[in-house]
Structure formats: C-alpha cells, structure tokens
Amino acid sequence: MSTSPAPSDTGPAAARTSFYRLHVGHGRGGEPKTFARHEYRDLIITAHQQLNAPLVWCWDNLNAHLAKEVIAFAEEHVDWLRIFQMPSYAPELNPSEGVWSLLNHAIANFVATDPSGLVRLVKSKLKKIQFRAHLIDGCLAGTGLTIQP
Fold it and tell me: Nearest to residue 144, comparing CAs of 101, 65, 90, 106?
C-alpha cells in the first residue's frame, strides 16, 4: 500500500512516505516466517512503481536480505534503489525499529481474535502513523539520519 502526504502537510516533511505490505506467517508446519527472496524483490518493485520515486532501504542481516539474488537485483537497479546494510545488531540505527515501537504502543491495548483481525488492526494503526510525517521524522531523527531537501 502506498501513501501520500496528508493535505495539511507541507514543506520537506511532506515528502516522507511509508510503504508497507503485511505478511502473516505462523511458522507452523513448514510455513515461512518471513518473505521469500522473490517477495522482497516484488515488494521493492511495487513500492518503486506506486511511489514513482527512488527508494532507500535499511536492512538487517536476515539471510534473505544477504542472498546473492537480492544483492544482484539491487546492483541492477542502482539508478533508483539504495540498500544500506545495518550492522549485526543495531536497532538504534534502523528507522523501521522506531516505526515498530510506535506500532507496538498503538496496539498494546487491543485484542485480535484471529489473524485477519490482527491484520486489520495493524493496517489501521500503520495507516494512522503514515499520515503523520512528524512521527516518521522522529524515527529518522532517532537514528541520526536526516533527509536532504
């Protein structure tokens, strides 16, 4: 799902956009717990097409992120894709950790009775976060990263 700035947002912060796709995996009976390599590639392509903008991704050392196919894909698309590899354990450097923290606080007092209810809840809360550029800016600021106008 792509987003656009809220109508009241102006200035440099209005350019911040959050893009997400939920993946519900239980890890039971051979079910994957995360995206497959091709699903990461497809997510990146979809984000690029829907946002019509260059992308910057910050990744941890998950084996799917380090796969030869993913690295080759990134190298083929250096004109619009930059991937920064985070150190082995450095949540303070990864802006997505701040988003997860905001999401955790937002859903702390809610109960979902089934996976589809949880998906609806998470989507709803992410949608609220994505239209508040100052929250995304705060996640960036916490890492020491800044957006150049």
Answer: 90
100 plus 51 within the same structural domain: no
Residue 14 resides in a domain:
no
CA distance 149 to 79: 19
Q: Which residue range(s) make up the domain with 138?
A: 90-149
H/E stretch holding 125: helix 115-130
| pLDDT tens sequence across 70-129 | 889 999 999 999 888 877 666 677 777 787 788 877 777 777 777 787 778 888 888 888
**Are residues 74 and 101 both part of a single domain?**
no
What is the sign, positive or negative, of the torsion defined by CA atoms of 38, 46, 49, 130? negative
Distance CA 16, CA 133 (A): 6
> pTM higher than 0.70, yes or no?
no
DSSP one-letter string for 25-93: ----TT--SS--HHHHHHHHHHHHHHHTS-EEEEE---TTTT-HHHHHHHHHTTTTEEEEEPPSS-GGG
Token pair for residue 33? 């717990």
Are 101 and 81 members of one domain?
no
